[in-house]
Amino acid sequence: CDPKADSTNSLLGGKYIPTILDTVLEADPVREYTEVDVSKVLFEGYNGIVCAECGGPDPGIGCAGRGVITAIELMKEQGAFDSINPDFIFYDVLGDVVCGGFAMPLRQGICQQVYVIVSP
Hints:
By secondary structure, the chain is mainly α. The chain has helices at 20-27, 65-77, 80-84, 104-107, and strands at residues 43-44, 50-51.
C-alpha cells in the first residue's frame, strides 16, 4: 500500500504494474467489483511469485489503508485467494502511517500470523 507502487518491481524484473486501487477506480467507481478482472492486477514474477500492488492516495490526501481494504475486498470477491492458494502473503506497507486498513487481513481472518519487520 504505497503511492509509489514499487514493492514488487524487483520481483518483476524492474517492471511496474497497475495498482489495484487505480484499476478499481477506473473500471468500477462505485466499487461493486463486478467490472474488475482480478487477472489485470496479478502478475507472475521471479520464481512463480504472484505479485500485486495495492496502491494508495497521493501523500497527504486520503487514507493509505484504503488500498489494503480495496485489495482484500476485490481478491475475496473474485476468489483470487482460492485460485492462487498462496502459502504466504506479504504486505509492504508504509511505516509512518497508523491506519485501521492495515489490520484488515487479521480482522477478516485472511492471515493466521503477522510478523513486523522494520529497518532503520
